[in-house]
Amino acid sequence: AADAESQTLCRGYDAHHFDSSSNCLHAAAMVLSFVLLFRAAAALIGSAAARSRKPYASSVGSTAAAANTTNSATASATTGASAAAMTASRPWLRFAVSLLWLPPIWYLYAWVGHLLLQADVPAVFTYGMTLRGWASGEACSVKALLAGRTVQTSGELALTLTVCAIHLVLSQILWGFFSRPALESSSRARAHR
Given CA atoms 42, 44, 50, 52 in this order, what sign does their dihedral have? Predict the structure, then answer.
């Protein structure tokens, strides 16, 4: 019964997504969300692996490292530095911030597609406003993407990849723009010690 209910929901999801350009925005949002999650997890895992290779720094130098981190965070906060500098030295914080960015990225492009291209209500509001309804609907969206129902032609794939590339380039530019002054002020503060 649960499988039949899921299939009915997924058929409704597919019927609700009829505009190919809007579907490309949906696909781009999902791909960008997966990229964000993968990059954040890779940074977290890479940082943990790097710490495990430095036993001296993690055991003997932990007090000094904690002091440097505290001083760096204080210097960053007092100079008005962005969150980018604080997350650069704390991969777990960067991972947490990335998780906070997942919903806006996941839904932004999809809602633009629904509101501007399809001129209808986003599908997430039709699943039922429960956690189970939301999760079931989002599972249908991922299944549709992986099954090739969201993006079906080479033109749609090109549009999806173009949206992803533009987003990634702009986010790298903005990340560099906002993190550079903070990182520079943080490194200047460490140099003065």
Answer: negative
Q: Provide the H-helix boundaries in the chain.
A: 2-16, 20-52, 55-59, 62-78, 83-88, 91-112, 131-146, 154-191
Q: Which residues contact 125 (CB under 8 A, 6 or more apart)?
A: none
In this structure, are residues 140 and 126 in contact, taking their beta carbons and an 8 Å threshold? Answer: no
pLDDT digits (tens, 9 = 90+) for 111-124: 999 999 999 988 77
- Which residue has tokens 């990634």? 168
Q: What is the DSSP letter of 130?
A: S
pTM of the model: 0.69
Q: Which amino acid is at 75?
A: A
